Amino acid sequence: MTSQNPPARALDLSWGLGLLALDLSAAALSLWLGTAQIQLTHGTQLGDLIAAGTPCAASLSASAAAFSGAPVLFWWLPLYAVIMLWLVGALGHGRRAVQARGGLVAITAALVVASLLLVVATNGLGCPLLIGLLAVHGGMLAAVLLPRGRRRPALPTVEDWLPALIIGLTALMASGVGARLMAFHLDQAAQAAMAEPTLDLPADAAVATALTQVGPVVIPAQRSPVPVDDQDPSVGPLDATVTAVAFLDLQDADSRRLAWTLIDLDPRFSDRVRFVTKHLPMDASCNKKRKRTRNKRACAVALALQCAAVQHAFRGYRHALLRAPAAVSDQDLRAYADALGIDRAAFASCRASQAALDAVKADIEQASKGGVIDPPWLFIEGRVIEGAADPALIEATLAVALGERSVDSDGRALASVPQVVQARDPSGPSAMVRVGDGWIDRVEDSVDVDGRAQAVLGVAPAAVSLTQARAACAASGRKLCSRSTWVAACQGAAAVDSDGVGDAFDDWPEGRLQPYGDPWRAGWCADQSFGFAGAKPGCRTPQGALDLAGNMAEWVDEGLLLGGAAGDGDAVGCGQVQEAPGPGWRTPTTGFRCCVDADAAAAADIIGPTAGTVELAA
């Protein structure tokens, strides 16, 4: 007996090493192919074996090659980890060894079946890599079933499965999270590369943009299109190739964001797409499908918009409502109509009519039958987009509906969105921007070692209190900006007391809503974060002032904080205002910029060349 033991041990070790080599080879190949699949579906080019147009690329890009947002190959990695665990136990000759072999048989058989199904489902017979992986799995099964001198395998017990389950679940979570992180980083890198500035512009130039291809984005599946009624307000040709129908409540922030997106897309698609608006007010006074009112003036706004459309003023009236969403009193609604030249008597009669109310109720009923609850909802030739969707998704869905772009086997299509193409301004001291007869610092100020305010691009703005901001501006021979000057610089026009109540800031904005224009665009300003002065080249006025929206909330002399980061596209911009507890209060995001009037500038000779001018009416 003693002479026979060494050969038996040698046989066990060689068998185990062989199976381990096969297991590691299969795991490495699966990991490499899964990584390649993520790279393929997120726009990264690979080598010749998996280049665009090859059989392997087609197989890995198929929808059947992914499950729950990660490659199927990644979900196999836990099985390889369990094989290594049970392989150690299978090297002996006792009861636990044959039970470990039984578990290995089950797992390797499952891998063979799974890899065979993957080859069939993805048409992978032409991909040598997938066929090779299937062959390795077959070799693993044969190695487990056919070792010489081994007892017949048996089923594992609960005690055997428990550690395997723990290791498997750990590997499963790691592989799933790893796949999603890899995809996220590839998407971020692609977006950053596409948004990389490529054009130098002078300081007084407006924001320059170019359509940039991004994506891919997942296109919604096609369903039944939404019928359009004669009374539905719309823009675009009535016989357009494609119809996009939006259910909106313009008292809802997400609905307004979607409306701005559609307005932004209109110039590119206006000759081929009809953009239809249907009313879905979250107001129980006219929407009996709701138990509670969320937006008290939503029904009044819907009726006013419907009646403006009757007089062919839908586009202008919608724009007015989007620009001043809080100003929706009856007086405001009448004032918008007067400004657009709408017949006052006819408008008033329409708003009180049963016909207008019936039109709104018809939209509500149609939404209810289609399972549409809270707005916004967008239907593009039967493809349904819920909520304030990414403009890239809407653009890509419109392009697919028009036949301009195709949907790949994974249900994705590329999108083209406007992105900033001008270069970031060089770091260093910055010129001022003229506002009427005075000037305002072009960027948010920092403070030097002597306590003086300085406008320097590329450095972090100072976080100060109101008292500190006033002192820093005074030390530099300037003064803290007034609210009037700050707002005029941001919106490009002086604030006017339009309603005659003694407050120029409580009614409609006179100029643009954002430093760069009316529609809010995600990421153009530091809307939900803050960074160094001038970090966002798109967040600039035509005169060259930077960061008046987003980034730091800026003190003005009246003790208010203007601009600053916020999460709502309505709030971010030239109308953003916060009240502070007192002049000594500050946070890491309370900053400032200084101003100077014409007389002080001439006396102190502190201006030098200016970046641009905001011309204000006398």
Polypeptide structure, described:
By secondary structure, the protein is of the alpha+beta class. The protein has helices spanning 5-41, 55-61, 72-75, 77-89, 95-121, 128-145, 158-194, 253-269, 298-310, 314-323, 330-339, 344-351, 354-369, 391-401, 466-475, 483-491, 598-604, and strands at 66-67, 70-71, 209-218, 234-235, 242-248, 273-279, 377-380, 383-386, 412-420, 428-429, 432-435, 438-441, 446-447, 453-454, 456-457, 479-480, 550-555, 560-564, 577-579, 590-592, 594-597, 610-614. Strands 4-6-5-7-8 form a five-stranded mixed beta sheet. It has a five-stranded mixed beta sheet with strand order 16-21-12-11-22. A four-stranded mixed beta sheet has the order 19-18-17-20, with helices on one face. A hairpin with a 2-residue loop joins strand 7 and strand 8 (383-386). The longest helix is centred in the first third of the chain and has 37 residues, at 5-41.
